[in-house]
Amino acid sequence: MLISYNWLRELVRFELSPRELAKRLTMIGLAVDTVREAGDDYILEFDLTSNRPDCLSHLGVAREVAALVGARVHLPEAKIPSLRGRAGELISVEIEEPDLCPRYTARIVRNVRIAPSPEWLADRLQKIGQRPINNVTDITNYVLHEQGQPLHAFDLDRLRGRKIIVRCARRGERILTLDGVERELAAQMLVIADAERPVAIAGVMGGEEASIHETTRNVLIESAYFDPLTVRRTARALDLHTESSHRFERGADPEAALRAQERAIALICEIAGGEATEDALDLYPRPIVRPVVALRPSRVEALTGVAVPEEDIIRILTALGFHLKDGERIEVAAAEQPLRFITPSWRVDIEREEDLVEEVARHRGYEKIPEELPASKNVGEYLYGEERRRTARRALAALGFDEAISFSFINSAYEHGFAPLPTLGGDEVEFVKVSNPIIEGVTLMRASLVPGLLEAVRHNFNHGTRDVRLFELGRVFARDPHGERPRERESLGLVATGGALEEGRALAQRALDFYDVKGALEAASEAMAAPRLEFEEARVAHLREGQAALVRLNGRAIGYIGRLAESVAAQFKFKQPVYVAEIDLTSLLEAEARKVRYAPLPRYPAIVRDLSIIIERRISWAAIRRAVLALGLAYLRSVEFADVYEGQGVPEGHRSLTLRLEYRADDRTLRDDEVDRMHEVIVRKLKDEFGAQLRQ
Amino acid sequence: MTEVDHIAELEAVRSAFARAFERFARFEGGAGALPLDEAESALRELSELRARHTGRKSALAALKKQIGRVPVEERAAFGQSVQRLEAEIETRLERVERALKEAVERQRIERERLDVTLPGRRPRRGHLHPITLLRQRMEDIFVAMGYAVEDGPEIETDFYNFDALNIPPSHPARSSQDTFYTSDGLALRTQTSPVQIHAMQRRRPPLRVVAPGKVFRRDTPDATHNPMFFQIEGLLVDRGITMAHLKGTIAEFVRRMFGPQTRTRFRPSYFPFTEPSAEVDYSCFICNGTGCRVCKGVGWIELGGSGMVHPNVLRAVGIDPEEFSGFAFGLGIDRMCALMYGLDDIRLLYENDVRFLTQFD
């Protein structure tokens, strides 16, 4: 909202420069964004909070200034030179919806001459960003900006049946509004109608047909109070936001209707000539009553920390238009007597004691409130699992993964083809859908972090970065058919593609693969001291068969890892292999932390033997290891993976695998022949169970 | 054997050595720029020469054996001559050997000289997201000030997101123009304030909590808007809490966050869930309040909204506003991030461009 410094000074006397004024008003809650010089004037641009529609005019700002500097507001006198006839003889007004239109007033000026506005008027409006149209229309606009009361001028002779009816629109009714757009009205919209059709959308915009034209001779000035909610709904539904709707939907001053109308009539008579009716038709079927609010002076100190003397409280509130209701102090033994204040009609934001405390505090000045630290009765604590989250982040960053944050909503194109996080409910997962997306097609709350991470990879590819490692911690969602709210799980996602870059070296020594992502996942879970993750080959919707695994924690499926399937890669136009993983972080955070217990150091040496076997490719390392351990050999201390080789010298469909076996007794040094016997048992087992051959 | 014979034999040994040593003599003053392989073979040859001329079967060794056989009166003089010769040979051998070894050593060093300015070897390091960095810092500050970090769902019911926060049913913020709704009629939380309600239901006063998290508003993405961003909410409820405590707390936070010289300014404002309400500004961390490009010349930067918890909010969770009072505040992390790092387009925050992410530590 724009306010003219000079105009304001006509309403209240003060000795503040435009910049000082802006600063002082900002500090009492009327935020001034900019002060701009405009010829011999200054224009202040306000960014007002929605609870203060009373300040949406020069009068409104003047009231605050008056309270600030201890002055009075002077409204210009409305002198109407020639009066003739009574409004009721010329028009009849009927309110069909008194709840939506608690007050409607109409007054008429006859024999006006429509012409361009005089220079001073046009200039004033232009300075505050309004376009002059003609004298009568401009006067209504002028009074709106002076007093905050929206007015509307009708051509009396274009109102059919000499009738005004405030009613709801009828199904299918249309109106050509002043902005030149023909609009269809809905049944719950309030309109001003004549005997036949709507002539204005109440509180929003007038219709072209019954508006002021060059030929207009007789005008009717409407000044009303419309229900805020009705106006807001209508303005929203029509996407039509005007100076008028802006004020009505926040709450106008019902008691200002006649005063503003009289001011407009006086200006019309002065500028456009004509004779006004002696009176206005004033229908006020539902009087708006502002509350009487009690204030205990002690509450000012209790809430602000500053004691304000009673007389200062009364002075501040009276200056703001509140009236102390005398003689109504309730006598209660030992309890504090509250002051009771009658709220001015324009203060729609005042309802309770705390509101008055704020009025007192802001006019005393928030800067007078001291800074104190409250005595602490609490201890600080992080969110459950926060330490684990932080160590996981650090572990992943140490491995070269950058942290990503993606939008929680994803494109509906990803509804199929991606396995949701298994802890959300397996294949039965139903997406949470956003019914009013802001980005077209982005209608799903993600059930997996993978689509977002793949979009990030694509973004990086498109910008020339081909070596990408990203991780993300964030929530994923799924509908819960039984709960009030959807399921929300915290998830950890990883993506890796391109080369295993080293810091400061441009050329990667090797390409990233499945085991880099697996290693990162293991490092993260280890950093969280979580139990060991288990991996099991599986078929997963978005992953390539044969390079995909289910990830388990304590036997429960918590995620997936693998290479992106060709079909998905093609959808993203990826030409290089991309590896992804996702696990349910909540499960890791909730898992019991691995406990460290010291194991005594061995007193006798171990004997370490490597065993190389040729074995079918389909036999997994995990199966081999499990088989060896299942033998239950007392002195076999560990079975470790040493190496794998495929190619020359190894038959098709086979691979050469080297195991490192460690044998050790706690009470003596093992003899070679003892170890030989155990080793022989292992070789036989692998031969019998898997057809493994010793490699020579 | 005569004396002359001894002498002649001694001289023969000397000259035999001198002849054999002749090609090494030039190294006595240093082996200089002799190529490494030549220096190494010269060393080998030198060691052979030493064995030949000073070893057990050498002429010199034979000469030393003769000393005892020389007549007593000549023995001392002869012995001394032999010793001198041996010393002379040893000295020359050693001198050359040292020179050659030095040359070899030097060249090996040259050959293995490293470029110490090449980058150290380490895997490429990853980086935490700037939002995470700021969020962790804020959490650390508030935890140190006795706050518990809290958390709530990102998809909320109207009760938590609006009703309990004293936002009337007709409030524009509830409209589908501003708030995302799921097809089941739930709201993507538009603020972290609903966590206030969860926190007050979980803990009873005295309580102090902060809740950082994601929030959603229906803004079309542009240089200054994203439909998703991060806030941190703070709430303290106890007996006798006033705006002075709010001011003191925010001022302390801001000093810890931006430096001890930072000042705060509280302006009256409006939020449905606080009364009185205040907008908080802090003095610009670039110009310290004198006005610069970052603070658009005003010296102050908006931090966020705050105020005394509205009695209706306290009542919604069964806390008596006559007995307890509290303050709450909500700060935007993205905006602070944009200002601190000088981002000109906050869409960068969620595009996950590696060239962007790697700039933060």
Strand content of chain A: 15-25%
Whole-number tally of structural domains of chain B: 2
The radius of gyration computed from the alpha-carbon positions of chain A, rounded to a whole number of angstroms, is 40 Å
Structural class of chain A: alpha+beta
Q: Specify the biggest β-sheet of chain B.
A: 7 strands, mixed
Question: What percentage of residues of chain B falls in helices of 4 or more residues?
Answer: 40-55%
Q: Kindly identify the CATH topology of the largest domain in chain B.
A: BirA Bifunctional Protein, domain 2
Low-confidence stretches of chain B: none
Q: What's the tally of helices of chain A?
A: 19
Low-pLDDT sequence parts of chain A: none
Strand content of chain B: 15-25%
- Please give the alpha-carbon distance between the first and last residues of chain A: 90 Å
Q: Write down how many β-strands of chain A occur, each being a DSSP E stretch of 2 or more residues.
A: 32
Q: Average pLDDT of chain A, to the nearest integer?
A: 94
Radius of gyration of chain B: 45 Å
3D architecture notes:
The complex is a heterodimer of chains A (696) and B (361). Chain A has 696 residues and is of the alpha+beta class. Chain A has five domains: 2-69, Phenylalanyl-tRNA Synthetase, Chain B, domain 1 (2-Layer Sandwich), CATH 3.30.56.10; 87-283, Phenylalanyl-trna Synthetase, Chain B, domain 3 (Phenylalanyl-tRNA Synthetase, Chain B, domain 3, 3-Layer(bba) Sandwich); 292-368, Phenylalanyl-tRNA Synthetase, Chain B, domain 1, CATH 3.30.56; 386-590, BirA Bifunctional Protein, domain 2, CATH 3.30.930; 607-694, Alpha-Beta Plaits, CATH 3.30.70. Chain A contains 19 helices and 32 strands. In chain A, the strands form eight sheets. In chain A, strands 19-23-24-28-27-26-25 form a seven-stranded mixed β-sheet, sandwiched between helices. In chain A, strands 4-7-10-11-12 form a five-stranded mixed β-sheet. In chain A, helix 5 (119-127) crosses helix 6 (135-147), helix 10 (297-304) crosses helix 12 (353-364) and helix 11 (310-319) crosses helix 12. The mean pLDDT of chain A is 94. In chain B, strand 6 and strand 7 form a beta hairpin. The relative contact order of chain B is 0.10. Chain B folds into two domains: 3-112; 130-358, Bira Bifunctional Protein, Domain 2 (BirA Bifunctional Protein, domain 2). Chain B has eleven helices and nine strands. In chain B, helix 1 (3-25) packs antiparallel against helix 2, helix 1 (3-25) runs antiparallel to helix 3 and helix 2 (36-54) packs antiparallel against helix 4 (72-111). Chain B starts with a helix and ends with a helix.
